[in-house]
Amino acid sequence: MKLNELVAPAGSRKKAKRVGRGHGSGLGMTAGKGAKGQKARSGRKPRRGFEGGQMPLQRRIPKRGFFSMNRREFAIINVERLAELESGCVVTSDLLLSLGMISKLKCGVKILGDGEINIPLHVVVEAASKEAVRKIEAAGGTVEISI
């Protein structure tokens, strides 16, 4: 087989639709766009979400609550997960990330107080709940909040 003998399979190459070329073509007069109106005109289409002057959905539905622009989202971990570490270990956000205890750092790590801990640890994180601090210190450890 040579390059000049190559032929496309039957039905794979379709002729382009030629619109607006008279009544006999089947797509004459309005060129498949229906009657008059904004969407039949040439040029720009209406913007996304435009509902023909009706109050758009994003303005109709009620808005509730407050969304802080300065919100800090933490990667959270409970005290019971820290109990898996070895005694006397210095716990940092980088250590937790490298051990796979958290998947993403975000704005830092926050320790929450769910579960029990009975080994002393030196914890250096960005935030911790009061209950978590109480449990870690009761086990003989320390908590240092770094910002």
Describe the 3D structure.
- This protein is of the alpha/beta class and 147 residues long.
- It has a domain at 75-145: Ribosomal Protein L15, Chain: K, domain 2.
- It is 16% helix and 14% strand.
- It contains 4 helices and 6 strands.
- The strands form 2 sheets. The protein has a 3-stranded parallel β-sheet with strand order 1-3-5.
- The termini are far apart.
Q: If you consult CATH, what is the topology of the domain at 75-145?
A: Ribosomal Protein L15, Chain: K, domain 2
The tally of beta strands, per DSSP, is 6
Structural class: alpha/beta
Q: CATH first level of the domain at 75-145: which class?
A: Alpha Beta
Task: Sketch the topology as an H/E string, one letter per element.
Answer: HEHEHEEEHE
Strand order of the largest sheet: 1-3-5
Most strands sheet: 3 strands, parallel
- Determine the fraction of residues in helical runs and give it as a percent range: 10-25%
- The backbone outline, from C-alpha atoms, is elongated
Radius of gyration: 33 Å
Strand content: 5-15%
As residue ranges, the low-confidence spans are none
Q: Give the count of helical stretches.
A: 4
Level-2 CATH architecture of the domain at 75-145: Ribosomal Protein L15, Chain: K, domain 2
Task: Compute the average pLDDT.
Answer: 92
Gap from first CA to last CA: 72 Å
Topology:
Blueprint (H helix, E strand, L loop, with lengths): L56 H4 L14 E4 H4 L7 E3 H7 L9 E4 L9 E4 L1 E2 L1 H9 L3 E4 L2
